[in-house]
C-alpha cells in the first residue's frame, strides 16, 4: 500500500492506493491556518487514520506547495508561508517514525497523470497546474525530474512571453517579482483582468459563466487568457518539447482553454507546426494526492 498526502492551503487530503493504483481510502480535513505544529499534527493524524481504516501500513509521500532546499533541507517557495524555512520532512519523519518523500504539488500532479492518467504511455510529460497559483512538473519515462535546484517545471515564475506594453510591468507576484506568468494565468489574474475592464469583481468561474451568457468583457478576458496561456506553453515546448501537456487545477475545467489552443500555441513555437497533445487531467483534483502516493514507485500499474 502507498499513502499520499496533499498539503494544500485550505485542506489536507490523504489517499491510500494499492499496487495497481486502486483507491482504498480518501479523506480530507481543513488545514490549520498559520500553525506549523498544527499542520504536522493534522498530517500525522491522517496517516494513522488511513492505516487504521485500511488495516496496513504504507510508504508515505507528500505533495506540498514549494520544495525542499538542497542547501538547507528546509522548505522553500511555498505560498503556504508558515511552512517556509521549516524542516517539514525531518519533523514528520521523526513524528511518524518512518522515511518520507516530499515533492512539489505540481510535480506530484505530473507524476500521477504520467503513471496512470491522461498521459499514460507518453515518454515526456509536462503537467500544468492552473488555479490559485500556476505550477508545473516534468516527468520523463515515468520518472519525476525535480531538477538540480528542485525547481524544474516552475514556468509560472518566468515573465509572460511576448508581453505587450499594456501587460508590462505586470502585477506584483508573491515571489517578489512582477509580471510572472502566474500573475496572468491564475484565477486571481483572470479576475484582475475582468476588474480592469469593468470595475466589477467576479471569480474565474463567474467570468466563464458571464462569457457564456454574452458578457463581451468576460469573453474578451477569456480570449486574452487563452492567448497568454498559448504564449507561455510555447516557451515550454521550445525548451522541453514534451509529448503531452496535461492541464490541471481549477481553471483546467474552463472549456475556453482547449478550443483552438494547439493551433494558437503553434503560432508562437519555433517550429513549422506542432502536434503536441494538450489534454485535461484524467484524475482531476485527485491527481496531486495520487502522485504523492506514487512517489514510492513511478512504475505504471499492471
Explain this structure to me?
The chain contains nine helices and twelve strands. By secondary structure, the chain is of the alpha/beta class. The radius of gyration is 19 Å and the shape is globular. The two termini are 15 Å apart. The mean pLDDT is 94.
Give the C-level CATH assignment of the largest domain.
Answer: Alpha Beta
Looking at the structure, the CATH topology of the largest domain is Nucleotidyltransferase, domain 5
Q: What would you report as the Rg, rounded to the nearest angstrom?
A: 19 Å
Kindly report how far apart the N and C termini lie.
15 Å
Strand order of the biggest β-sheet = 3-2-1-4-7
Assigned CATH architecture of the largest domain: 2-Layer Sandwich
- Beta fraction: 15-25%
Give the beta-strand count: 12
Low-confidence stretches: none
Q: Could you say how many structural domains there are in total?
A: 2
Main beta-sheet strand count, sense and barrel state = 5 strands, mixed
Helix-strand sequence = EEEHEEEHEHEEEHHHHEHEH
Total of helices: 9
How would the global form be characterised?
A: globular
- What is the typical, i.e. mean, pLDDT? 94
Question: At the fourth CATH level, what is the homologous superfamily of the largest domain?
Answer: ATPase, nucleotide binding domain
Amino acid at each position: 500500500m502507498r499513502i499520499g498526502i496533499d498539503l494544500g492551503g485550505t485542506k489536507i487530503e490523504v489517499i491510500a492506493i494499492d499496487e495497481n493504483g486502486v483507491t482504498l481510502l480518501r479523506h480530507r480535513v481543513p488545514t490549520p491556518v498559520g500553525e506549523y505544529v498544527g499542520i504536522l499534527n493534522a498530517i500525522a493524524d491522517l496517516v494513522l487514520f488511513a492505516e487504521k481504516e485500511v488495516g496496513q501500513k504504507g510508504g508515505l509521500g507528500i505533495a506540498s506547495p514549494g520544495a525542499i532546499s538542497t542547501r538547507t533541507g528546509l522548505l522553500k517557495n511555498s505560498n503556504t508561508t508558515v511552512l517556509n524555512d521549516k524542516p517539514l520532512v525531518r519533523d514528520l519523519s521523526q513524528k511518524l517514525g518512518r522515511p518520507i518523500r516530499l515533492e512539489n504539488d505540481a510535480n506530484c500532479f505530473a507524476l500521477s497523470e504520467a503513471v496512470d492518467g491522461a498521459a499514460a504511455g507518453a515518454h515526456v510529460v509536462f503537467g500544468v497546474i492552473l488555479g490559485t497559483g500556476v505550477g508545473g512538473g516534468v516527468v520523463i519515462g515515468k520518472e519525476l525530474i525535480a531538477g538540480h535546484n528542485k525547481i524544474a517545471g516552475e514556468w509560472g515564475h518566468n515573465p509572460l512571453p511576448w508581453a505587450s506594453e499594456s501587460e508590462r510591468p505586470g502585477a506584483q507576484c508573491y515571489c517578489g517579482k512582477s509580471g510572472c506568468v502566474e500573475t496572468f494565468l491564475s484565477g486571481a489574474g483572470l479576475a484582475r483582468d475582468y476588474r480592469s475592464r469593468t470595475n466589477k469583481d467576479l471569480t474565474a468561474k463567474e467570468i466563464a459563466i458571464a462569457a457564456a451568457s454574452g458578457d463581451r468583457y468576460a469573453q474578451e478576458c477569456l480570449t486574452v487568457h487563452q492567448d497568454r496561456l498559448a504564449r507561455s506553453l510555447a516557451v515550454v515546448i521550445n525548451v522541453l518539447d514534451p509529448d503531452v501537456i496535461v492541464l490541471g487545477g481549477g481553471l483546467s475545467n474552463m472549456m475556453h482553454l482547449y478550443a483552438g489552443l494547439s493551433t494558437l500555441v503553434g503560432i508562437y513555437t519555433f517550429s513549422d507546426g506542432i502536434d503536441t497533445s494538450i489534454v485535461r487531467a484524467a484524475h482531476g483534483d485527485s491527481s496531486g494526492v495520487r502522485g504523492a502516493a506514487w512517489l514510492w514507485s513511478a512504475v505504471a500499474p499492471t
